[in-house]
Amino acid sequence: MNSNSLKNVYSGSVVINGAETITGFNAARSISGMGFKVYGLTSHYKSVYLKANVWDKIYRSGYCCTEMIAIAKNIMQHQDVRTQKPALMLCQDEMVLFVSKHRAKLEAYFSFILPSDSSVQLMMDKTKFHAWAICKGFNVPRSIVITEENEIKIALETLNYPIVIKPLTRDDNWNKHFNNSKLFKFESIPSNVALIEEAFNYTEKLIFQEWIPGNDRDVFFLLTMSGKKGFISMSGRKIHQWPILTGSTAMCVSELEAEFENEAEDILKEASLVGLGSIEFKRDIRTNKYYITEPTVGRHDYQSFIATTAGVNLSLLYVLECMGYCYLNDFKPKKACWIDELNFIRATVKKKEFSLLFDMKVKFSYATFTFKEPKLFLVYWADFVLKKLRNLIRNIK
Amino acid sequence: MANTLFIFKVINFDEFITMKREWNTLLANSDANTLFLTWEWLNAWWAVWGDKLDLELNIIGCYNQEGKLLGLAPMYRAYGKVFKCFNTVRLGILGTSHKFEPTIRSEFQDFIVEKSEPIIIRKMMIDEIFKDNSWDELILSDVKNTSITFALFTINKYERWPFYLRVINKDSGVKVNTKGQIKEYLVKLGKNIRSTAFNKNKILNAQYCVMKECVVDDFTTSVNILNDFHLERWGKLCFDRDSEKFHSLVFSETEQFQSYFLKIKANNETISISYNIDYMESCHNIQLGFDSSFDKKFALGYMNLGELISDSFIKPKILSCDMLLGSGQKTFYKERFKGDLYNVSTLQLIRSPILIYIFRLYDVFKRAIK
Hints:
The structure holds two protein chains of two kinds. Chain A has helices spanning about 20-30, 65-75, 95-100, 105, 115-125, 125-135, 150-160, 170-175, 195-200, 260-270, 305-310, 315-325, 340-350, 355-360, 375-395, and strands at about 15, 35-40, 55-60, 85-90, 145, 165, 185, 205-210, 220-225, 230-240, 250-255, 275-285, 290-295, 335-340, 365. By secondary structure, chain A is an alpha/beta fold. In chain A, helix 3 (about 95-100) runs antiparallel to helix 5 (about 115-125). Chain A is globular and about 65 Å long. Chain A starts with 12 loop residues before the first strand and ends with a helix. Chain B is α+β, with helices and mostly antiparallel strands. Chain B has two domains: about 5-170 and about 345-370, Aminopeptidase, CATH 3.40.630.30; about 180-320, Aminopeptidase. Helices cover about 35% and strands about 30% of the residues of chain B. Chain B has eleven helices and 13 strands. Chain B has helices at about 15-20, 20-30, 40-50, 120-130, 150-155, 180-190, 190-205, 220-235, 240-250, 300-315, 355-370; strands spanning about 5-10, 55-65, 70-80, 85-95, 110-115, 135-145, 165-175, 210-215, 255-265, 270-280, 280-290, 320-325, 340-350. In chain B, strands 1, 2, 3, 4, 5, 6, 7, 8, 9, 10, 11, 12 and 13 form a 13-stranded mixed sheet that branches. In chain B, a hairpin with a 2-residue loop joins strand 9 (about 255-265) and strand 10 (about 270-280). In chain B, about 40% of the residues are buried. The chains are: A alpha/beta, B alpha+beta. The interface of A and B includes residues 9, 317 and 327 of A.
């Protein structure tokens, strides 16, 4: 599937939430230029991604049904066919929970595919998912969920080290305070638990999880879209994460014959996933066993654009499914690589693995850089440099 | 199913003329079963425009080892010019002549393929079409976006044969489900459309001597009325001499489908008329016209469609009323009837390198201007 060959083929409107994020921007890129009107939803005012040409219009909206319905009505009013609902594509966990909760109201104005609310809750709640996975016989790392500060000590003493501690659900507050860190890693029982206590200010529940030995390259994922034609998936593996070992994807590649693919699809089928979703595994380097580390439901993943690069445009398939277009389930992923430029530089500098890019004969794509819109990439870097300078000046003062 | 189990053959005119039953049986067993692909419709179209437009029949049939017809690509070949200077050989589906002298609009064009193997046979049919090097562009008009053919030329593009794809037209239509009780349907409608299309009859009745008439003969008179209404509203006829000839052939067909005019008369004068064809389980509204100088309180077009939908609910064999493609002068009024919306696209597949270059340039230029 070559996006260039689908210029202006389709019609209809698509609303993408999280327009200010890399995930939102990459989801929009995947369907841009194909004839859809692409609208962004954002609650932020400042982000370079809001300036991208992929958006026909940006709407400011928080998690509010009335606002979202007003936006849908406005979009439909400007269409030739006013009864055609815009497709709603989600990119943030909080929005998935919100839409799932208010689906009865929103369904009349948007066309979207989400699993049942119980499935959404199951996949989003790490405690429920962990218990469910064990019950179904899937491998998950040993974990303890705590809700109060006085449980910290018991949890720290129960598990085998190293361990990681992460919030049950990560929201904007957490991201802001902890600078987008997904988790904290401890090699042994920490003497000072102040950081863990502080984390309780930004989440109601913390999950303590035994660390699966392995490096960034032992993290695998399956991105999928499940619709009338069954599961359409694309597997990949991470090469770099930032921060190393615990962070978000900095570089990943497609994995054409992944061992875990069947197991991953079984898990998602068992959890009744429909629409967009993904599942992340970590391979234990001692036993070669794959452990589920993170499921994603109802939305795009950070590195989802690699599927588009590999020729399996899951974003487009999701929109086509929402709008009732015909497609066949016969996609064969090609070799591809996706890079988050900034985190890639940070990770490679730290790891000193500079030769890697030249060894790979694959199709590359980048989180921010596109040949169609190089200006955005320059603005992004200018913005980044300015921020750093501002911080530096502040520190000097 | 292996490729060798299928035999592909070009069907000539003599064979086409005699394959009515075989054609319609396949159509009934296919996922493209529409009025516009029936043998009768396409035969009438060919009889009127085949020679006139200097077209060559290019129907490809797919048979199994036992000689059973499993697929049809009902095409013709035409010789024309692109941008009035580049010679081109075009393939098109019978029933519409996009970009040539306008004929009629036959909607939902597609390959006719038996439901049991819709993908494999279609793919092999595409192979057969592309193996023939003598054509430059293929035009598929008003293909439903839910069709496998649409997928095979777009998102699931068959990589084996390179071509440049252009979507040269997009349109929408509405099909009202007329199963069940009309009361339940009317409840779903907005207050305005319910009043305009279904309830104004009583007021009209009170003011005029109103009569509803379903005409299954007297084709010429009805067509003349439609033409008069169109000329007044749109400044052109809806049936020129050729399309009148075509529709008279279709109208005379009574085996496969039933054609009729639905007239609303006030004081014995026709004020609104629709031309409809019942095929299989659906009623198709082919044309609609009304007296635009009549009392403005009444939306005569809506009223006629309201009558048509009401009648469809009454007819036991009819389960839907298809208003087909197209919109009104200002709005897409059909959506107000709260039917199932469907979308179609007209695909142009270009494979001549020169034409690809020209059209790419043309498209870039067009986008730049936009």
